[in-house]
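Hey, I'm writing a tutorial for new members on how sequence and structure tokens pair up, and I'd like a real worked example in the thread rather than a made-up one. If someone can provide the structure for the chain below, I'll link this post from the tutorial.
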Amino acid sequence: MSRRRKPTKKEHTMAEKKPVKTGAKPAGRSGVGKTSKGFTAEEREAMRERTREMKAARSGADGEAEVLAKIAAMPEPDRAMATRLHAIIKASAPSLSARTWYGMPAYTKNDKVVCFFRPGHKFKDRYATFGFNDTAKLDDGAMWPTAFALKQLTAAEEARIAALVKKAVG
């Protein structure tokens, strides 16, 4: 009676390897002429804006003028909110510098974005957003808000934003 021998580890792993496929890719798989499904057109435009902003910063462009031009180009009601927010931020924290950030108005301290305004039309949202980055000193326990949806600005919202901006700058 003959016994079958057990394959060695090398023989076992070699048998499991799949053959290498060669030849051309199937038609339509080259990616040519296809758009990325990862980013929307608006997101790709924001990335292009960021590249332009970085080049402008190296050339010493005036950030305040760029922000005011971006605000002027916004459709209503985003333009009215951005204009009012710009005034509130400049009055509440004169130490912040205005510049654009991904094509949106932003306010910086030591070249780091503290707060920003994202118009609703930019990404086809139903509301605008006023937000803070991690450089803002808003820490309050283990959890705190960093962005706020804006449908309109009333005196109550303006007062709250002014207080948050003052706190964010520290």
